[in-house]
Amino acid sequence: MKNIFMALLLFGILICSKVCTAETKNLVFLNFPEKVENSGKLGKQIIKKTSNTRIFFHYLNATGQDQTFYFRAEGKIKNYKIGYSVDFEPGFAGSTAIVNFYNKIAKDTVNPLIKIKVPNRHTISGIAEGFFTTGDYWLCRLGFGDYVDNIKIIKTTFDPILINENLNDDEEFIYRLGDEKNQIIAGNYGYDYKFQIKNSTDKIKTLTCKLNPRGGNIIGVFNINGTVYKTVDIKPKVDHLFYKVILKPNEYIYLKYIPTGGYSYPVEFKFELIPVKI
Q1: What gap in Å lies between CA 89 and CA 213, rounded to an integer?
Q2: pLDDT (tens place) for every residue of the chain, 278 residues total
Q3: Which helix (DSSP H) or strand (DSSP E) does residue 222 occupy?
Q4: Residues 262, 94: contact at Cβ < 8 Å?
Q5: What is the full DSSP assignment across 80-137?
C-alpha cells in the first residue's frame, strides 16, 4: 500500500510539473446578453466572503443611442485595478482592455468609480479585480433603468493555469487553448494562463513563440517577463511569430495570457528552441 501511495504521489508531481494551478480567485463573467438592447443594470454582487474577485465584462451597446457605462465598487478594496476600452470592433476593445489591465498598478482604494461614454454600436470591454471584504459590493450598468432584458451573470472560481515546459533540442511544445466544450465559459475569457518555458539544453538557444488562431482573426496580448506585448491582427490558421529571445542554458521566460473578449477560440501556442544565428 505504501508503494502504491508513493507511486501515485510521484505521478501527481510529474503531472503538476507540466500543468498545475494555484491562487484560487472568484470570477464574475458579464457578457449575457452580448448585445445590450435596452439600458439598465448589467450586474451587482454583494460580497459574502472576503476574496480576490475578478469581474470580466464585455458588452455591445445596441440600444440605438450613445450611453454611459458605469462601474463602481463600495468599500475599502485592496490591490484594486481596472483596465477597459471602447471600440467599434469588439476584438480591438477586448485586446486594448487587456493591455490597459496589465499596465495598471494595483493599489488600495475606497469606493472606486469609472464612467465612460459608449457610442451606439460600440463595445465596452474590461476587467476589474481586487480583494473585496464581506459587505463590499460592485455594480455596473449601461445608462439608467432596471436590469437589462435577459441578463445572465455567471459566477465561478478559477485557478490560474500554470504551464511549465522544459524544452530540449529539436522539440516543439504546442499548447491548445479553448478546446474544452464543457467549460462554463468557452475559451475561459478572463482566466490567467501562465507559461514558464525553459531552455533545458546545455547550449545557448533562440526561443521562438508563435500564435496560431483557429477560430478567426485575433490580436494577442502578452505579459512577458513584466513587459506587455500586443500583436497585429493575425489571420486564422497561420503561425505568427510574436516573440523570440536568446536563452542561456537553464534560463526561461515567464509569459502571461488572458483570453480576450471579442474573439473566438481555440488558439495554439507554439514554443521551439532553435540554433542561435551568428
Answers
A1: 18
A2: 334 333 433 334 333 434 444 478 899 999 999 999 999 999 999 999 999 999 999 999 999 999 999 999 999 999 999 999 999 999 999 999 999 999 999 999 999 999 999 999 999 999 999 999 999 999 999 999 899 999 999 999 989 999 999 999 878 999 999 887 666 677 789 999 999 999 999 999 999 999 999 989 999 999 999 999 999 999 999 999 999 999 999 999 999 999 999 998 999 999 999 999 86
A3: strand 221-224
A4: yes
A5: EEEEEEEESSHHHHHHHHHHHHHHSPPEEEES-EEEEEE-TT-EEEEEEEEEE-TT-E
In angstroms, rounded to a whole number, what is the distance separating the alpha carbons of residues 101 and 83? 4
DSSP state of 218: B
**3 state SS for 223-264:** EECCEEEECCCECCCCCEEEEEEEECCCCEEEEEECCCCCCC
Class of 160-275 in CATH: mainly beta
HSE value, Cβ hemisphere, 13 Å, CA-based, for 147: 11
Alpha-carbon span 125 to 30, nearest angstrom: 10
Task: Say which CATH architecture domain 25-156 belongs to.
Answer: Sandwich (2.60)
Q: Which amino acid is at 190?
A: G
* pTM of the predicted structure, to 2 decimals: 0.89
Single-letter residue type at 207: L
Q: Which of 109, 114, 118, 138 is nearest to 28 (CA)?
A: 138
Question: Which residues lie across from 20 on neighbouring strands?
Answer: 162
**CB contact set of 110 (below 8 Å; sequence gap of 6+):** 75, 76, 77
Terminal C-alpha separation, the chain? 56
Where do the CATH 2.60.120 domains begin and end in the chain?
25-156, 160-275
